[in-house]
Amino acid sequence: MSRYWMKTSVNYTLVGEGHEKGAKYSFANIAKDVDADKIVKFGKVLETLTNDKVSDATIAVTDHITAE
Predict the structure, then answer these.
(1) Of the N and C termini of the chain, which has fewer Cβ atoms inside 10 Å?
(2) How far is Cα 53 from Cα 8, in angstroms, rounded to an integer?
(3) Run of H or E including 10
(4) Residue pLDDT, tens place only, 8-46
(5) Which of 48, 54, 47, 40 is nearest to 12 (CA)?
(6) Other CB atoms within 10 Å distance of the CB of residue 46
């Protein structure tokens, strides 16, 4: 059996005026081994651009497994 990385994406939830329950922003084509520090730093950029606050971020990794 082999396991291969296919893709990584990040979903941010931002809370602010007009969307108190949160607005979702998704980003694809994230580096395979992205670390939490980079996710947090990019969240700060989003906060600056939107004047909202990041409430959480979810990293989704898709791997492909082959049965040999």
Answers:
(1) C
(2) 23
(3) strand 2-16
(4) 999 999 999 999 899 999 999 999 999 999 999 999 999
(5) 54
(6) 16
Structure-block tokens of residue 18:
């007009």
Answer whether 60's CB lies under 8 Å from 6's CB. Answer: no
The pTM for the full model equals: 0.86
Q: Cα–Cα distance between 20 and 22 in angstroms, integer?
A: 5
Tokens coding 29 = 């084509």
Return the pLDDT at 48.
97
Q: Residue 55 CB: number of other CB atoms within 10 A? A: 14
Other beta carbons within 10 angstroms of residue 30's beta carbon come to 17
- Total residue count of the chain as it appears in this document: 68
